[in-house]
Design a protein that fits this description.
Blueprint (H helix, E strand, L loop, with lengths): L2 H21 L7 E10 L2 E4 L2 E3 L8 E8 L7 E10 L19 E10 L5 E6 L8 E9 L2 E11 L1 H7 L8
Parallel strand pairs: 3-9
Antiparallel strand pairs: 1-2, 1-4, 4-7, 5-6, 5-8, 8-9
Length: about 170
Amino acid sequence: MTGGRRFSLFVATGTFVTLASCARPAPPAFVKVAKLGVFYGGQVEERTDIPFELDPGKQTQGFRVEFSEPLASDTDVEWRIDVPKADPEKKKKRAPGEPAEPPRTTLSGKDVARAGETTLDHVLTFHPGDPLGVWNVRVVVHDKVVIDRPVEVFDAAARKRLVPRDGGVF
């Protein structure tokens, strides 16, 4: 074989290997979609703010994780919610040199999506005394973060009182 033919064969082989490796489609994502918001009519309406409502008959909020295909085995879904302290005005006295308490509290848990399922819904319930403000919600599946964002929990009645009823016209 001459040098020119070897070089042509080398280039052709390299091109074939490169194209063959690029032609494979990427494997589908384990989680198709994950949403945080209010459950409404079988759907999840994604929200950046959620009214504080204690009655689950009026409103149910939480997150939904939809998997790309039915699960082959049980799968852990870990979640963490950072919320403001319930009563930041109540400051306890601390000894000199004692570190300050963090301004937020963390709630965490784990759900299990069962084999064969394609969806996991987790309802976040509000309780009397839960703080208003920005709640940061983080959901992890197979060591991959699928939700990590803030949502503002607000008092709907107080917000309604603040909105002018005349459309802002004096």
